[in-house]
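At this stage, I put together one protein's amino acid sequence and its backbone structure tokens, which the following lines show:
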Amino acid sequence: CADRWTCLCLSSAGTRAARSFGPSESRPAPRSGTRPLRGPRPRARLSARYDIGNFGIYVQERYIHSGLRNPNYQTGVDISDNEISAVWYTDMTLNYKLGDLLGGDGELYFNITNLLNKDPPPTNSTGGRSWVDPTEEGLYDVLGRRYVLGARFKW
């Protein structure tokens, strides 16, 4: 695409852990205030980039599959709601290529992560504290929408 006036690039990727615990494999239930134990969470990324002249736009969708708060709990018996819904996050980057600038390639970019400001789903028990809505910070976007304006130069 480097030598063309317009270019469209599409890509995708996905992951899933190699092993999941089945219902016959017993695991201890989590203690109050700890993260629940559950099977693997499939994730995927879909992205598209479109360049026309010096302008470009990049859009990425991040997907995290639905799951259970605790695979050892039975809904309606041990817990009222054991489901965690799937989540989609949208990221977007706009860029402008400056071309040769001071003897090197330059680019200005503006990035918005979590464009739609999607909240993470609650994933475990609040332990009786109704104002707390805990989630897994390592898995979900807990920061909300964020902006980055920057420049890149290559010499």
User: Anything to note?
Assistant: The longest strand covers residues 87-101. The mean pLDDT is 80. Strands lie at 6-15, 43-52, 55-64, 67-68, 83-84, 87-101, 104-113, 146-154.
